[in-house]
Specification:
heterodimer; A: 190 residues; alpha+beta; five-stranded antiparallel beta sheet; 37% helix; elongated; B: 435 residues; mainly alpha; Growth Hormone, Chain: A; 76% helix; disordered N terminus
Chain lengths: 190, 435
């Protein structure tokens, strides 16, 4: 019983530490991923049309997979605006995927997405040139997010909690010797 | 359906199992391997072609969730169908699942709309997931004790090779043919040819036949879905089920999220990710076969414990590295140990249980524990690691934490609650129950 109470307390503590965020980098990431879905994508949820066409031109004409590389790095953020570095690489088959749109197969586009907070939501309003101070992770820049030391300790805590939960369930359900044990399946740990 | 053709005529008593002729077992292994191959094939096809399906049939990314969800629910519902192998026989259910899968795959290829496709994939998953449970049961029942591990290793490895084949077909341009995404489902019609051999050359397993024909065996409950939860099996089904759940929570999340991590957090191109998956998948599939060999030589528990411990190490390393050169060997080792341990879990889910209830036990472990784990894992990692709203904001770190949190309990369960079945003679288990 004490173990169950301890496990429950640990669970509550972990859940309360799981606050959600609203990262502008995530908006850029979803915008590019959505753009890569061709006409099924909904990049207009995250950016205006005139911004989106800078990447893939007439993107609604493209089949999925026109972007071979999508990478977004950690940016800078103030209360109402944010700057986020990104890098995309066009697929070598982009001409067959998007038709004759002037897109160069294998070309890379790097830049900084400029976001503003509108009605409480981040929205990409413009694109800027690459900024040496803002790089993507593969070029030595910051990652979008990372687990804190507390989160790693929490992971170990969850492992312990799940093991205790197993002990409790086995005590509840598994008291009787099994048929396999009766005929010689080697017993587990005593 | 009476056995006919070139099967081992006269087989019927459990004691005959080890005497069954090798050529028959080789043919049987090929049939079962082909069946599980398409289970892996189908699991990867949808992920690959869904963007093309949305463009062709009309639909948004959010509606894609409907299709994915229907597939997951179908695999859980398969518990009811898979359990029927204890009632109608392994051979008959295997034939039903192959025909059912082929028919519903054909319907998927002909889908006029997204809802139709979701429905046909829901049905296809019911047949596929049931096929896995019955295939593993047949292996355990038809191979002698000293060869069971190796046979399980070969059959379960086909699942991974099926997935790789999807990537190869995509790489060679099947999607660019006039059939587009439908071509992948046309390939899924191939298993129909297996039915012709299975109908003529495959016989019911000797153990099942013996139990069904004995007076005492007829008195056992071959119908109830809850039979594996009886006192004599409950401890095993709970321990093996929980182990399946925790293991697959981590494994399925890793399989689902690695391509995303590699592309969007490690900066790899889609084409490089595809290449790595193909190479690592082929090398990793060896893990199943090696695992099967070790199961027979040193035992199920030590092999599984070693595989699981190494899977934690290599799995976390894969999701922490950003170096594309280091990524490939780590990915190979993670697949070798992480996916390769399926050979052992399939032994745990069958060998603890007597013949009259074995298929239902396998179905519980697979469809009621493992499949839900496969749904929960990717959701948890997606929620934790979501770049916009996730508490962690990194898929790599979220995945590493999930591996730690769920695979350590797998090790604990194995040490504390799972027995060794390497030398277990299934005849004695049947005799114990019947007696």
């Amino acid at each position: 019983m004490k173990r169950l109470v301890a496990a429950s307390a640990l669970g509550v503590a972990l859940l309360s530490s799981c606050h959600t965020a609203d990262r502008p980098e995530g908006v850029v990431d979803r915008w590019l991923t959505s753009l890569n879905q061709g006409s099924a994508g909904e990049p207009d949820l995250y950016a205006d049309e005139e911004v989106t066409v800078w990447i893939l031109g007439p993107w609604r004409e493209c089949d999925p997979g026109a972007l071979d590389v999508i990478e977004v790095g950690g940016g800078t953020e103030s209360a109402a605006s944010a700057r986020v570095p990104f890098r995309v690489g066009l697929a070598r088959t982009v001409e067959s995927l998007c038709g004759p749109s002037g897109l160069l197969p294998g070309a890379e586009i790097e830049g900084v997405a400029i976001l503003e907070r509108r009605d409480g939501e981040w929205r990409i309003v413009d694109l800027g040139p690459p900024d040496p101070a803002l790089r993507v992770p593969s070029e030595g820049g910051e990652r979008i997010g990372k687990a804190s030391a507390a989160a790693w300790a929490g992971g170990v805590g969850v492992a312990v909690a799940l093991s205790l939960l197993t002990v409790a369930l086995m005590r509840l359900f598994g008291r009787h010797p099994t048929a396999a044990e009766r005929v010689g399946a080697d017993a587990p740990a005593p | 359906m009476e056995p006919d053709g070139d099967g081992p005529a006269g087989a019927g008593m459990p004691d005959d199992v080890s005497e069954r002729d090798r050529p028959y077992r080789r043919k049987l292994l090929r049939l079962l391997a082909a069946a599980t191959f398409f289970e892996g094939y189908d699991a990867f096809v949808l992920a690959l072609v869904l963007p093309l399906v949305l463009v062709d049939l009309g639909g948004t990314e959010s509606q894609a969730g409907l299709v994915r969800g229907s597939v997951g629910v179908g695999a859980v519902v398969a518990l009811v169908l898979a359990a029927q192998a204890d009632r109608i026989g392994r051979r008959r259910l295997l034939l039903i699942t192959i025909v059912g899968y082929t028919a519903t795959t054909g319907l998927t290829a002909l889908s006029p709309g997204l809802l139709f496709l979701a429905g046909s994939q829901f049905l296809a998953q019911i047949f596929l997931a049931a096929e896995w449970a019955v295939a593993v049961t047949i292996v355990v029942e038809e191979f002698p004790t000293r060869e069971r591990g190796r046979a399980l290793g070969i059959v379960t490895s086909m699942n991974t090779l099926g997935g790789i084949t999807v990537g190869i077909l995509g790489f060679v341009g099947l999607a660019a043919t006039p059939l587009s995404w439908r071509g992948f489902y046309v390939v899924g019609l191939v298993p129909l040819v297996l039915v012709f051999w299975a109908r003529r050359g495959m016989v019911e397993t000797a153990r099942y036949t013996a139990v069904r024909e004995s007076e005492a065996g007829r008195r056992l409950d071959h119908m109830s879905l809850l039979e594996p939860w009886k006192d004599a099996y409950r401890r095993n089904i709970m321990a093996v089920g929980l182990m399946h759940f925790f293991r697959f929570t981590a494994i399925s999340a890793a399989v689902f999220w690695w391509p995303y991590y590699a592309q969007q957090e490690a900066g790899m191109s889609f084409s490089l990710v595809s290449l790595y998956l193909g190479v690592a998948g082929i090398l990793g599939a060896v893990g199943f076969v090696v695992g099967g060999f070790l199961m027979d030589r040193v035992g199920r528990r030590p092999t599984f414990s070693a595989y699981t411990a190494l899977a934690i190490v290599f799995g976390v390393a894969v999701f922490q590295t950003h170096d594309t050169l280091v990524m490939l060997p780590l990915l190979c080792l993670a697949i070798f140990t992480g996916l390769g341990s399926a050979a052992m879990t399939s032994a745990f889910s069958t060998e603890f249980f007597p013949t009259y209830v074995r298929s239902r036990a396998a179905a519980w472990c697979r469809n009621a524990f493992e499949v839900p784990g496969g749904i929960v894992g990717p959701l948890v990692v997606g929620w934790l690691g979501d770049h916009r709203t996730g508490p962690i904001g990194s898929i790599g770190d979220a995945m590493s934490l999930t591996l730690l949190a769920t695979m350590v309990p797998v090790l604990f369960i194995t040490w504390r609650y799972i027995g060794e079945t390497r030398h277990l003679v299934l005849d004695q288990l049947d005799a114990e129950v019947v007696g």
